[in-house]
């Protein structure tokens, strides 16, 4: 399923305002202790909108990312 990117960005911006600690979640990627050019393997559980996964791929372009979300749609 594909989402309109502006809807996802709006949703994540809203979450930053109303979900306690959401900004801390966004900081996690900035503090992953691996070389940005390494072939890091990442498991993302509870992907949500996927913007977190996209940030990981942008920060770690050689990484291999496995995303799992349990939404039944």
Q: Which key terms come to mind for this protein?
A:
alpha+beta, globular
Strand order within the widest sheet? 1-2
Distance between the termini: 9 Å
Instruction: Note poorly predicted spans.
Output: none
The level of helicity is: 40-55%
Shape descriptor: globular
User: What value does the average pLDDT take?
Assistant: 78
Task: Give the class from helix and strand content and strand pairing.
Answer: alpha+beta
- Tell me the number of helical segments per DSSP (H or I, 4 or more residues long): 3
* Residue share in β-strands: 5-15%
Let me know the number of strands. 2
Instruction: Characterize the largest beta sheet: strand count, sense, and whether it forms a barrel.
Output: 2 strands, parallel
What is the topology?
Blueprint: H1 5-18, H2 22-28, E1 41-45, H3 51-59, E2 64-68
Parallel strand pairs: 1-2
Concise overview:
The chain has 73 residues and is an alpha+beta fold. The protein has helices at 5-18, 22-28, 51-59, and strands at 41-45, 64-68.
């Amino acid at each position: 399923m594909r989402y309109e990117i502006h809807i996802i960005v709006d949703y994540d911006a809203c979450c930053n305002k109303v979900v306690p600690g959401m900004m801390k979640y966004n900081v996690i990627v900035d503090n992953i202790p691996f070389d940005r050019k390494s072939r890091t393997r990442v498991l993302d559980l509870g992907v949500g909108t996927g913007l977190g996964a996209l940030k990981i791929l942008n920060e770690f372009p050689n990484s291999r990312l496995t995303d799992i979300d349990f939404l039944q749609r």
